[in-house]
Target: Catechol 2,3-dioxygenase-like lactoylglutathione lyase family enzyme
Amino acid sequence: MNTPINKTPIKNRIGGVFVPVRDLEKASNWYSKILGLQGGEIFFGHLYTAPMDGTAGLLLDTMPKWRNEVGNISTYQVPAIQFLTNDIQAAYQFMKENNVELVTEIEDDFYFVFKDPDGNLLMICRETA
Model:
């Protein structure tokens, strides 16, 4: 663990990653299928917490407070989240078999980019050691 340079009450840890979604049920079903998730909870009618391994949680959120005047919300237009795999070829094939929209081929034998049903760009990378 890194020792902070300055004293701060803010922890050096990510507690969760928010993904903007339009339809919470559709999004939670899709992410559960793609990531092999079981469980999870809905809070406040607009937030789904996905059970993830590691320090950060995946939070699917319809984000009612952040929508524009006609009810739209921006999606990630650059890969903002990286999911890991031990087998990049198998992960790519799995996504193809599940009709996931692939944005790139496998690049540098290390990663590929895809879209979720809301159009968010996400990435899968081969885990290194």
About this structure: Residues 24-35 form the longest helix (12 residues). The domain at 75-129 is CATH 3.10.180.10 (2,3-Dihydroxybiphenyl 1,2-Dioxygenase; domain 1).
